[in-house]
Amino acid sequence: MAQRQQPPNNIRKYRKPLNLNIGMIIFVAIMVYVVYCVFASLQVEHISPYEVKEGSLAMNYTYRGIAIRQESVAVADKAGYINYYAREGERVACGDLVYTVDETGRLNDYLQSTDMGDNALSERELAELRGEIGGFVHSFDPTNFDSIYNFKYSLKGTVMRLANASMMQNISNINNSSDLIDMVDFCRSENTGIVTYWTDGYEQLTPEMVNADIFDEKEYEKKQLLGVDLITQGDAVYKLSTSENWSLVIPVEEDIGLLLQEKSTVKIRFLKNQYESWATAKLIRGSDGNPYVQLDFNNSMVTFATDRYVDIELILNDEVGLKIPNSSIVQKDFYLVPEAYLTKGADGKDGVILERYNEEGNIYSEFLETSVYNYDEENKEYYLDSATLQLGSNIIMPDSQEKYTISRKASLTGVYNMNKGYADFRQINILYQNEEYAIVKSNTRYGLNVYDYIVLNAAAVDDAQFIY
Q1: For 181-229, how does the pLDDT look when each residue is reduced to its tens digit (9 = 90+)?
Q2: What are the φ/ψ torsions at residue 59 (nearest 5 degrees)?
Q3: H, E, C per residue of the chain
Q4: 14-18, 39-43, 83-87, 164-168: least confidently modelled range
Q5: For a tag on the chain, would you pick the N or C end, based on fewer CB atoms within 10 A?
Q6: Mean pLDDT comparison of 34-48, 105-119, 336-350, highest-scoring range
Q7: How confident is the model at residue 45 (pLDDT cuts 50, 70, 90)?
């Protein structure tokens, strides 16, 4: 019998060759490039633009001042039920009807039984209510919660006064009722002034009497008179502010007080309505010896006749120009070249005639285009780009053999303009600057224009660097 043949024991497994095609190679290359770009973009500081716009900066100081006016309080001659007819905050003449006192209360019954017609509020009256509510919302301080109650009584009194004012057309009918006319006392103003319906005990206050305790409003109490129905003889019934001249006294530091007094007149912005006015400033000492500034006004008293405390801003500087962030500002050095050495090339661009040497050592001249960044009118010198010129180079005066050796440098303050796609230095003249922004002069020859784009962070770029 034939023997079975044994299989060979040297069989090896066949490896398939790596089959690379052009599509896979391109895909891998693209992936590597994308990954590289992602990591590169994470490591590069991004350059953000800033659009130049017109604006202003005001170096302001906010204070709460106490209002001092020429005020006189009228008191009731009789007891009874009171009804007001003069609008609060309006001027009354001597002899104008302000309120009536009804000894029996029959006047209210008579008016209620009379056909009053349409009692809808006029646009002026609605505007008055809106103004009062808006003023409270703007000045409300959560830490001074008691002011809500003052506002409540003030608003209630305003509504009552407006309602009573609508009854004025029927008051004349009382004269035909002999049983009422003897019981109603018609009380008229004894002077001319702005009528208000509140008291607080500061009606006789003078600037020299002011002290730190007066500005502690936790102890301040404002008594509203409009919400009172029944009065007794001798009660305060209304108040007249008899002069348009009034003052605000604000607590200040000594140096601020001296600065304001030196200025003499100061621009004020009232926070209640954003109204701006001018005041005469005077540094005084209060009864406690502390420094205060007395701000005297000759207008707008009626606007704040119902306020004892008034919030203001002192506008010590209010420059208007191009507003740019401080992070955009940079310093750059330039060469100073006399005016006579600057010329223009065939294409009308600025430049200088530079002295050069050829390979044989012979001297020749060549026009070199260079950017001008500023002109010093006093010294008749131009600021030229230090990147195109070299220290110690000689330039030649046009139509002359006189030479000037570049040797002097000076720095300019400016920003990097990016309108052309690269960091182009532009000189700026700073009018005013605070911690965040600067106001620079507009319409300058080598400066910025409105709506230019500048580099937001000047430290992130180099001069003439391409941005996009």
Answers
A1: 666 788 899 899 999 989 999 999 999 999 999 998 888 888 888 766 7
A2: -80, 90
A3: CCCCCCCCCCCCCCCCCCCCCHHHHHHHHHHHHHHHHHHHHHHCCCCCEEECEEEEEEEEEEEEEEEECCEEEEECCCCEEEEECCCCCCEECCCCEEEEEECCCHHHHHHHHCCCCCCCCCHHHHHHHHHHHHHHHHHCCCCCCCHHHHHHHHHHHHHHHHHHHCCHHHHHHHHHCHHHHCCEEEEECCCCEEEECEECCCCCCCHHHCCHHHHCHHHCCCEECCCCCEECCCCEEEEEECCCCEEEEEECCHHHHHHHHHHCEEEEEECCCCCEEEEEEEEEECCCCCEEEEEEECCCCHHHCCCCEEEEEEEEEEEEEEEEEHHHCEEEEEEEEEHHHCEECCCCCEEEEEEEECCCCCEEEEEEECCEEEEECCCCEEEEECCCCCCCCEEECCCCCCEEECCCEEEEEEEEECCCCECEEEECCEEEECCCEEEECCCCCCCCCCCCEEECCHHHCCCCCECC
A4: 164-168
A5: N
A6: 336-350
A7: low
Q: What is the pLDDT of residue 42?
A: 63
How many beta carbons lie within 10 A of that of residue 340, not counting itself? 12
**63-76 burial, b for 16+ CB within 10 Å, e for fewer?**
bbbbbbbebebbeb
**What's the angle, vertex CA 239, arms to CA 103 and CA 301, rounded to 5?**
150
Q: Is the pLDDT of residue 166 over 80?
A: no
pLDDT at 41: 64
Mean pLDDT of 334-362: 88
- Put residue 6 in one of left, alpha, beta given phi > 0 → left and psi -120 to 50 → alpha: beta
User: pTM here?
Assistant: 0.56
Task: In whole angstroms, give the CA distance from residue 157 to residue 227.
Answer: 5
The two beta strands, 350-357 and 363-369, are antiparallel
User: What is the spatial distance between Cα 34 and Cα 11, in angstroms, rounded to a whole number?
Assistant: 45
Q: Of 312, 311, 66, 69, whose CA–CA distance to 212 is shortest?
A: 66
Higher pLDDT: 213 or 10? It is 213
